[in-house]
């Protein structure tokens, strides 16, 4: 038997506010009624979904599973209502796109350009963040799709499906003030004492960089600025002697004012998109996926080399 939607909504309120008192006030019900609702939910499931203490209430592992799934369901219901209203008014959407910094430079805008050129009025939102922040949003139903790195080793999940679009090779970007500017190729040991700009933690990009230094037995740079903004990275490379690791997808709309130098053994990452497993995509999501495929097919080969 399915759990009661009202009981799940009450659990979401407690998870949001961290206390029965605040959740009851928000829901417009008495605290005993709210407590009884959760007790019935726990009785139905045969597990404890909340840990209660003097400092408030927190989710157990079972409660976290329920909340994660429930957030997705309630988001889908809200989006369904919005989609119906939009359809009645001649608007396509909603479409919520999660995107990592590298694909926002060129790939996502170009794909969106293809999409909206064939649509009328649309309701589209772009959420820019790092991989580790976007995946929970996808699972919770707050976004429909993530465009960015995929096929990362040991990080697959059964509730998320991926499609690979292309391989994205890495290289070194060096501006006119760098001693490496104009070089034809580089090795990582040559750059051990270089002044770097590198990504902050929380992304596939950062994990790739860390693995690259580790596997080549090169210490993490002592002189390093951490940033994820592509505009900041590119500006610092152009105006200082610092270098950074850059990919071909990142320089799709840039590349002027600095040298892009092949780095031996740097490897590549895989770019694609992620969606929730089992969720039937809307027509607009499907059209956006096709626009991504067309944009990649037009400009890149499957191994990431510009055509």
Quick gist of this model?
This protein has 307 residues and is α/β, with parallel strands linked by helices. It is built from 10 helices and 11 strands.
Overall description:
There is one protein chain. This protein is globular. The protein folds into three domains: 5-67, Winged helix-like DNA-binding domain superfamily/Winged helix DNA-binding domain (Arc Repressor Mutant, subunit A, Orthogonal Bundle), CATH 1.10.10.10; 71-165 and 270-299, Periplasmic binding protein-like II (D-Maltodextrin-Binding Protein, domain 2); 167-269, D-Maltodextrin-Binding Protein, domain 2 (3-Layer(aba) Sandwich), CATH 3.40.190. Helix 1 packs across helix 4. It is α/β, with parallel strands linked by helices and 307 residues long. The N and C termini lie far apart (56 Å). Helix content is 41%, strand content 23%. A hairpin with a 2-residue loop joins strand 1 and strand 2. Strands 3, 4, 5, 6, 7, 8, 9, 10 and 11 form a nine-stranded mixed β-sheet that branches. Strands 1-2 form a two-stranded antiparallel sheet.
Tell me the major beta sheet. 9 strands, mixed
Examine the coordinates and then state which fold CATH places here, giving the name of the CATH topology of the largest domain: D-Maltodextrin-Binding Protein, domain 2
Query: Which architecture of the largest domain does the CATH hierarchy give at level 2?
Result: 3-Layer(aba) Sandwich
Radius of gyration: 23 Å
Alpha-carbon distance between the termini?
Answer: 56 Å
Give average pLDDT, whole number. 85
Helix content: 40-55%
CATH superfamily of the largest domain: Periplasmic binding protein-like II
Q: What's the helix count?
A: 10
Shape type: globular
Secondary-structure element order, as H and E?
Answer: HHHEEHEHHEHEEEHEHEEEH
Strand content: 15-25%
The CATH first-level class of the largest domain comes to: Alpha Beta
| Class based on secondary structure composition and strand pairing | alpha/beta
Number of strands: 11
Question: What number of domains?
Answer: 3
Q: Uncertain runs with pLDDT below 50, 5 residues or more?
A: none
């Amino acid at each position: 038997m399915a759990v009661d939607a009202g009981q799940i909504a009450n659990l979401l309120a407690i998870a949001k506010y961290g206390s029965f008192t605040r959740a009851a006030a928000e829901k417009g019900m008495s605290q005993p009624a709210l407590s009884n609702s959760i007790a019935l939910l726990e009785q139905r499931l045969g597990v404890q979904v909340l840990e209660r203490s003097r400092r408030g209430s927190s989710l157990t592992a079972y409660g976290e599973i329920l909340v994660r799934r429930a957030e997705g369901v309630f988001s889908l219901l809200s989006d369904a209502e919005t989609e119906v209203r939009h359809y009645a008014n001649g608007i396509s959407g909603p479409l919520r796109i999660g995107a990592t910094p590298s694909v926002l430079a060129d790939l996502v805008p170009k794909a969106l350009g293809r999409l909206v050129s064939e649509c009328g009025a649309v309701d589209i939102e772009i959420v820019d963040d790092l991989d580790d922040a976007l995946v929970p949003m996808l699972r919770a139903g707050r976004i429909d799709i993530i465009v960015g790195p995929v096929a990362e080793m040991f990080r697959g999940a059964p509730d998320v499906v991926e499609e690979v679009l292309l391989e994205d090779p890495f290289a070194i970007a060096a501006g006119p003030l760098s001693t490496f500017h104009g070089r034809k190729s580089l090795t990582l040991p040559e750059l051990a004492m270089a002044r770097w700009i590198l990504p902050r933690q929380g992304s596939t990009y950062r994990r790739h960089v860390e693995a690259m230094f580790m596997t080549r037995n090169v210490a993490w740079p002592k002189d390093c600025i951490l940033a994820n903004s592509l505009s900041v990275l590119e500006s610092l490379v152009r105006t200082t002697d610092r270098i950074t690791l850059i990919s071909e997808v990142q320089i799709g709309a840039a590349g002027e004012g600095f040298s892009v130098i092949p780095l031996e053994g740097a490897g590549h990452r895989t770019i694609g998109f992620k969606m929730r497993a089992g969720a039937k995509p809307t027509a607009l999501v499907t059209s956006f996926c096709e626009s991504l495929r067309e944009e990649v097919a037009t400009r890149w080969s499957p191994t990431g080399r510009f055509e």
